[in-house]
Amino acid sequence: MLKTALDWLSIRLQAIAPHCPWQNGRIERFFGTLKQHLDAIIPIEGADLQIMMMEFRGWYNHARPHQHLYGEEVWEGRPKSTNSPQLISIWNGRINGWWFPP
Predict the structure, then answer these.
(1) Distance from C-alpha of 59 to C-alpha of 98, rounded to nearest angstrom
(2) Rounded to whole angstroms, how far apart are CA atoms 87 and 27?
(3) In Å, how far from its chain's centre is CA 17?
(4) How far apart are alpha carbons 2 and 9 in whole angstroms?
(5) Each residue of 9-64: pLDDT tens digit?
(6) What whole-number distance in Å separates Cα of residue 14 and Cα of residue 65?
(7) Contact, 98 vs 85, CB < 8 A?
(8) What residues pair up with 90 in beta bridges, in sequence order?
(9) What is the Cα–Cα distance from 48 to 36, expressed in whole angstroms?
(10) pTM value surpassing 0.70
(11) DSSP sequence for 23-36
(12) What residues pair up with 98 in beta bridges, in sequence order?
């Protein structure tokens, strides 16, 4: 059933070789960054953990400073945002970053 649906949507599954995390760098980078911050949180219940992971994903994708750019943003031909940047602070101020709304 899943394979049929993926074929219908023209989605091709990709798998990495066992024990080769470098073949899946994006998710490995995400998990590495997450592990650096996990010791700072203590969720009370499962719902809290789910909310905290959603917050982390938002920070990671939109507000985290990019190391390879020395904290600078690249706009790749898009007009730079004219809106005021907003400070994103999650996990009781342990994780911070700037979000530039479009």
Answers:
(1) 9
(2) 25
(3) 23
(4) 11
(5) 888 888 888 888 888 888 888 888 888 888 777 777 777 888 888 999 988 888 88
(6) 29
(7) yes
(8) 95
(9) 19
(10) no
(11) GGHHHHHHHHHHHH
(12) 87
